[in-house]
């Protein structure tokens, strides 16, 4: 009887171990939306992690379920998914306080704003942000537009802290930063823009929603075009809208990098510090270049030169 009980207890222990292991090997991928770039990134994460964990993915309402046990990791795709996941996890109590969260497809400023609030400050957090390294952006200007060395920038609440590093990176690459007055309110954008355009021969856009958004972009593009100062942006969509150039990372590239971090977490490693994208592409608007009398090399060739430059460092 005692032996049978011991066998039963051992079987129960083995079962519980398997259950806990299965739970520990579960990853939740929470999407801001199940369309477009979010769905594209989610598909990459699901495919990349399928062999390493059980993956539960979808929008927040489908993934964040009350009756589930804590997963090994939550990966969020987009700002809304990160915000919703942090709030949901913080409401779950102590058993969920150690669940790590890896954010993707969001600007660094959005990540930092949400990661520094409330209980999120004590949770293991990291991100692969969309922001390109400033050194890469300056290298793009130097490589693609060697005749233009005075770099104008419009800085808002989320980007003004980068002024010192912008200036340092500009000097490292043989450029001169000519910042305009910082923007706090919408009515300050165009006076600041006019000052930047009066002193710069290229305008570098940084992802700050107080400056660059759906309501301001076309006017900024038109004003800079009339001043014959090309705008170098941070997304391919801006290039399609009329910017001259952009260095950017695709959802597939960001998600692939995040999947590598997730596999490390599943293997028992801690989350790394916030990462900028390793892989990137360059987009160019040849029609805008021709209208401004600029010669641009092929975008793929520019991107390859940037990669080689980074590999040498």
Provide structural commentary:
It is a single chain. This protein has 313 residues and is of the alpha/beta class. The protein contains 13 helices and 11 strands. It has helices spanning 2-24, 36-49, 60-63, 79-90, 108-115, 134-144, 163-172, 189-199, 217-226, 236-241, 251-266, 286-291, 299-312; strands at residues 26-31, 54-59, 73-77, 101-104, 125-128, 150-153, 176-179, 202-204, 231-233, 245-248, 281-284. The strands form 2 sheets. Strands 7-6-8-9-10-11 form a 6-stranded mixed β-sheet, sandwiched between helices. The protein is elongated.
**Helical amount:** 40-55%
End-to-end Cα distance: 70 Å
Major sheet description: 6 strands, mixed
Count of individual helical segments: 13
H-E string: HEHEHEHEHEHEHEHEHEHEHEHH
Q: What percent strand?
A: 15-25%
Extract low-pLDDT stretches.
1-24
Q: Going across the major beta sheet, what is the strand order?
A: 7-6-8-9-10-11
At a glance:
By secondary structure, this protein is an alpha/beta fold. The protein has 13 helices and 11 strands.
Write the layout of secondary structure elements.
Blueprint: H1 2-24, E1 26-31, H2 36-49, E2 54-59, H3 60-63, E3 73-77, H4 79-90, E4 101-104, H5 108-115, E5 125-128, H6 134-144, E6 150-153, H7 163-172, E7 176-179, H8 189-199, E8 202-204, H9 217-226, E9 231-233, H10 236-241, E10 245-248, H11 251-266, E11 281-284, H12 286-291, H13 299-312
Parallel strand pairs: 1-2, 1-3, 3-4, 4-5, 6-7, 6-8, 8-9, 9-10
Antiparallel strand pairs: 10-11
Helix pairs in contact: 2-11, 6-13
């Amino acid at each position: 009887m005692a032996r049978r009980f011991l066998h039963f207890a051992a079987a129960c222990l083995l079962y519980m171990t398997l259950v806990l292991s299965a739970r520990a090997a579960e990853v939740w991928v929470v999407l801001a939306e199940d369309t477009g770039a979010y769905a594209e990134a989610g598909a990459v994460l699901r495919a990349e992690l399928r062999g390493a964990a059980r993956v539960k993915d979808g929008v927040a309402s489908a993934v964040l379920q009350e009756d589930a046990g804590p997963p090994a990791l939550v990966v969020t795709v987009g700002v809304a998914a990160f915000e919703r996941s942090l709030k949901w996890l913080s409401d779950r109590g102590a058993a969920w306080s150690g669940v790590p969260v890896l954010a993707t497809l969001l600007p660094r400023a959005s990540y930092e704003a949400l990661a520094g609030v409330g209980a999120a400050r004590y949770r293991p957090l990291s991100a692969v942000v969309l922001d390109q390294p400033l050194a890469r952006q300056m290298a793009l200007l130097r490589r693609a537009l060697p005749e233009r060395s005075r770099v104008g920038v419009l800085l808002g609440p989320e980007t003004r802290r980068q002024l010192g590093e912008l200036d340092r990176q500009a000097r490292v690459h043989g450029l001169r930063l000519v910042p305009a007055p910082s923007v706090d309110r919408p009515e300050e954008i165009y006076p600041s823009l006019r000052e930047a355009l009066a002193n710069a021969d290229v305008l570098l856009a940084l992802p700050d929603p107080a400056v660059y958004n759906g309501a301001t972009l076309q006017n900024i593009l038109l004003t800079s075009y009339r001043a014959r100062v090309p705008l170098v942006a941070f997304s391919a969509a801006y290039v399609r809208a009329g910017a001259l150039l952009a260095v950017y990372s695709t959802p597939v590239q960001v998600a692939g990098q995040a999947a590598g971090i997730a596999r490390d977490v599943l293997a028992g490693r801690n989350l790394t510090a916030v990462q900028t994208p390793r892989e990137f592409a360059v987009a160019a608007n040849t029609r805008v270049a021709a209208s401004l009398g600029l010669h641009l090399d092929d975008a793929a060739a520019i991107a390859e030169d940037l990669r080689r430059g980074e590999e040498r460092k």
